[in-house]
Amino acid sequence: MTRELRVDTLIGRMVRDPAGHRVGRIRELIAEIVGPGSGEYVVREFHLSTGGLVEALGGTHLARVLSQRFGLRSNRVVIGWRDLDLSDAAGPRLRRPLAEVAAALPPPGGKR
Amino acid sequence: MKKIAEVALGVITGIGGFLEVGSLATSVQGGAEFGFQLGWAVLLGSISLMVLMEASGRLAAVSNRTLVDQLRERFGIRFFLLPLIVGFLVSLLVLSAEIGGVTLALQMATGIRFQLWALPIAFLAWLLLWRGTFGLVEKGASMLGLVSVVFAIGAAALHPRWTSVGAGLLPTPPAHDSARYWYLAVSILGASISPYLIMFYSSGAIEDGWTHDHLGINRVTAVLGNLFGGGLALMVLVVGALVFLPRHIHVDAYEQLALVLTPALSHPGFVFFLATLGITCFGTTLEIALAIAYLLAQGLGWQWSENMRPSQDSRFSTTYSLVILLAAIPILLGVNVLGLTNISMVLTAASLPVTVVPMVLLMNDRDVMGKSVNGVVANVALVALAVMSCAILLAALPLQLLGGG
Amino acid sequence: MKGICLVHDVLDVQVVDRTRRKMGRVDGIVIELRDGEPPRVAALLVGGSVLAERVGRWMLALTRGVLRLLRIEPAITRIAFEKVRVVGSCVELDLDAGSTSALRTERWLDAHVVCRIPGGTGAEKK
Predict the structure, then answer these.
(1) What residues contact residue C104 under an 8 Å CB cut-off, 6+ apart?
(2) What CATH topology corresponds to C6-116?
(3) Measured between beta carbons, which residues in chain A are less than 8 angstroms from residue B74?
(4) According to the model, what pLDDT value does residue A72 have?
(5) Quick check: helix, strand or coil at residue B149?
(6) What ipTM was reported for this prediction?
(7) Which residues on chain B are in Cβ contact (under 8 Å) with C48?
(8) Most C CBs within 10 Å, among B74, B302, B322, B366, to test the C interface
(9) pTM of the model
(10) Going from the N-terminus, what domains does chain B have, and what CATH number goes with each?
């Protein structure tokens, strides 16, 4: 069964863990090509921002620039596609507790 | 050799294109009411414009995208709506004032009422954009705008005490009417630091195919063009101070402004003033109409270039056509042009944060600027500008109410 | 193209066709959720009403109202993501803009307004 979703309306949605606690807002989706020449891309990861004053004031861009230039850690969490339940797009949820699924974001300048 | 020619052309364009209805009106009024004391506002406006133009030119040359492109791409549509709507409305007001400036010059030259000139001037401006290239618009208008050098001649002919003029370049508190003083200071700043200029310059860099190789030209053009242009605006203030202040003349109509060069240069002074007013305002009319079309086209992703035939970029060409017509309507209806000029200058100053604050981020974003990100000096200057623009925004409404005159 | 950031690299970026003609910006991106498989990036969306929806429901209602007044059908251009050739300073598509509805307004203006005015058509000015 398939269902379509708009990325642009997904951005900024708060993700909660199975217990209902806030985890972070969806800020980025990383897509990768399935195989050379196929032209098909699939979403591998979701990046969540875990709040913070900088994001609240200046959004993603400010956080990224500050992280780039001053090495300030931007509070990001990486969630694999398997671990995010998007059956309710208005209220996305983790399938497992955060401690089990999350990985820290690589340092700035790593992934583009 | 070619580079020197390019730089020279760029600097001349900056000088000839600096004065327009706003800087003429605000500088004369500033001089008439406070002597040389507001010289610092003219200087600050020029320096601020240098910083912003250099930054936006560098951004375009390095990223191959205009400032508006980057505002939409980096900040998304929700934020972008703000500079889009604010930029559109404020620029439209200024465009009206510029058309008004041309029509008033023609009224004073021919005796025919200025309202009747609104549509012919709008048509001529539209025709030049429809048939002309970017080069023609930018350089042609600015070359003719060199007539404004007459203000330097006029100032020299009045033999000001140059030490006093120099003293005015440092801010001093006013001896009287603080609200009016700061209102005029903000108006002068708004006349120099116009967001439409930044957008026009940045788009021009793309129209002219600027790359990393043009970073040097960009810097020299932005600095020297605005230094000399600002110097001209200062001469306008000096002339206003020497002619109106001793006679205690409060300037509230363009007909009074028109006489500002007469004491220095007799009847030719009047003719040259009209030529300066008419030509510089007409050139700015072309620039602003294009700037508004650039804003919409780049923000929404339409095809755009002043070098293309209108049918190749129909939405872009239709936009500047409609915008010129829309802006001509207030003039056709006989609105007070000086009042419109003053209000549009204050609003321009107040609208600066929506352009300047995001620029601080863009100029520090390595994904955008690569190795050409801002250094410490550029950052200090840009951040100071951003803070100043926010202060102006907060002060604009109170000043308009208290010092609007 | 390897890994791409859909928000940073694709959303709001200029879209050009195979002749590098500008045809709008990526106003929306559609992903297809599939059971047991990673979501597939299905399509790009270009169009004013897509943009309006991102701003808010009020903006969408306003846009639809204005279009209805002018008796214009909102045009949302959907482009299969497989048509995306390069994601860089712009999103390059492997198709001609004319084969999509992205230039509907542009073509209408060209045919009904611009071409009727002398000097509107012809080779590039420069």
Answers:
(1) C75
(2) SH3 type barrels. (2.30.30)
(3) 61
(4) 67
(5) helix
(6) 0.93
(7) 300
(8) B302
(9) 0.93
(10) 2-167+177-403 (1.20.1740.10)
pLDDT band per the 50, 70, 90 thresholds, residue C86: confident
The SS3 call for residue C29 is: strand
Separation between Cα atoms, residue C85 and residue C94, nearest integer Å: 6
How many Å apart are CA C119 and CA A72, to the nearest integer? 55
Question: What pLDDT does B340 receive?
Answer: 94
CB-closest option in B74, B79, B366 to A68? B366
- Domain borders along chain C are 6-116
Q: How far apart are the first and last CA of chain A?
A: 33
Q: Tell me the average pLDDT across A83-90.
A: 91
A-to-C residue pairs, Cβ atoms closer than 8 angstroms: 95
Query: What is the interface size between A and B, counted as CB pairs within 8 Å?
Result: 20
pLDDT tens string B339-370: 999 999 999 999 999 999 999 999 999 989 99
CA dist., res. C17 & res. C79, Å (int): 11
Helices and strands, number each (H, E), in chain C: 3, 8
Higher pLDDT, B74 or A51: B74
Contacts of C5 in chain A (CB under 8 A): 28-30, 112
Tokens (6 digits) for B70: 């980057």
Could you tell me the fold of the domain covering A7-104? SH3 type barrels. (2.30.30)
Q: List the single residue in A with minimal CA-CA distance to B73.
A: A61
Interface partners of chain C (CB pairs < 8 Å, 3 or more) are A, B
- Among partner residues B74, B366, B373, which is closest to A61 by beta-carbon distance? B74
User: In whole angstroms, what is the distance from residue B214 CA to residue B204 CA?
Assistant: 13
For residue B170, is it left (φ>0), alpha (ψ between -120 and 50) or beta? beta
Q: Alpha-carbon distance A28 to A31, whole Å?
A: 10
CB-nearest partner of B365 from A58, A59, A65: A65
pLDDT value for C3: 85
Structural tokens at position C117: 């005015």
Tens digits of residue pLDDT in B155-204: 999 999 999 999 999 999 998 899 999 999 999 999 999 999 999 999 99
The C-alpha atoms of residue C79 and residue C26 are separated, in whole angstroms, by 10
Asked whether residue A96 carries a pLDDT value surpassing 50, the answer given is yes
Does A103 contact chain C (CB < 8 Å)? no
- Per CB-CB distance under 8 Å, the chain C contacts of A6 are 28-31, 45
Using the predicted structure, report yes or no on whether residue A104 has a pLDDT greater than 70: no
Q: How far apart are CA B276 and CA B36, in angstroms?
A: 22
Residue pair C47/A7 in contact (Cβ under 8 Å)? The answer is no
Nearest CA in chain B to A69: B364
